[in-house]
Design goal:
With 137 residues, this protein is an all-alpha fold. It has 7 helices and no strands. It folds into 2 domains: 78 residues, no CATH class; 39 residues, no CATH class. The mean pLDDT is 83.
């Protein structure tokens, strides 16, 4: 329900205002970042600093990998989601956005995981459903 309501509200905002999907993604992530900073700072009040991962965070390679993953996975993902909501109907965009598990199957096979025929059949059904959705449009 929350995804559906959010998609409809986002679509309405894009059709009635001139905000770009890039700025919408930046605003969403900024608000989320502020809430996380507030939450973490309030949680640390009164607790001793016993973080066992302190040495882990001192590695510049780890920090760079985290920033890269956060940028690609979060910022670009939300930006493209907002772009989809702006350029098509909320129903079509939401349907396509919920098919991300289908794309995990080839990655799982590539990584050597065992993928069942049931999972492959589910992916095929999802792709056929998307095809029907676009064909009937």
């Amino acid at each position: 329900m929350a995804n559906a309501i959010g998609a409809v509200f986002s679509r309405a905002a894009f059709t009635h205002t001139s905000i770009s999907p890039l700025w919408a993604a930046l605003l969403r992530l900024s608000a989320g970042t502020m809430i996380l900073i507030l939450w973490v700072s309030l949680e640390k009040v009164g607790k001793k600093q016993t973080d066992g991962m302190t040495g882990y965070w001192q590695s510049s390679r780890v920090v760079l990998a985290i920033f890269f993953a956060a940028f690609c996975g979060t910022y670009l993902g939300i930006w493209l989601q907002q772009l989809a909501l702006k350029l098509t109907t909320a129903g079509v965009a939401s349907t396509l956005l919920q098919t991300s598990p289908v794309f995990i199957i080839p990655i799982a096979i590539w990584l050597g995981e065992k993928v069942t025929w049931r999972a492959i059949a589910g992916a095929v059904v999802a792709i056929v459903g998307i095809g029907i959705l676009f064909y009937l449009k």
